[in-house]
Amino acid sequence: MHDPKVEQRVGEQRVDQRVDQRVGDVDALVRADVGRLLGCDGAAIDPEEDLLDRGLDSVRLMTLVERWRAAGLGGVEFADLAEQPRLSAWVDLIRSGGAR
After folding, report:
1. pLDDT, tens only, 27-76
2. Interhelix angle for 58-70 vs 4-38, to 10°?
């Protein structure tokens, strides 16, 4: 038996799962890239820590912008990263699709 309502709910669940996976992927990607540039485990960085105080400089910020653009995360600008140099802000920025 073919129930369109059941198929719609199953389809919505699949979309929700893909969105949840992508959200987790963004956080993991940002943490890994920042950790690599700082020479530490990205998972150990407090999401509210000021990354400039931790040693991230303008050259490394540009490296992140270029890397994330190449990965298809458009809309990321140097000024946005420099203005709010925290993992949590960058993840939110990428999830929202660009500049605020």
Report:
1. 999 999 999 999 999 999 999 999 999 999 999 999 999 999 888 887 89
2. 150
Instruction: Fill in the amino acid letter for 32.
Output: A
Q: In angstroms, rounded to a whole number, what is the distance separating the alpha carbons of residues 72 and 41?
A: 24
- Whole-prediction pTM value? 0.73
Domains of the chain: 4-96 (1.10.1200.10)
Copy the structure tokens of residue 45.
């960085």
Contact 29, 36 (CB under 8 A): no
> Cα-flanking dihedrals φ and ψ of residue 59, to 5°?
-65, -45
Cα separation, 66 vs 63, whole angstroms: 5
CB 49 within 8 A of CB 66: no
Sorted by sequence, the CB contacts under 8 Å of residue 96 that are 6+ apart come out as none
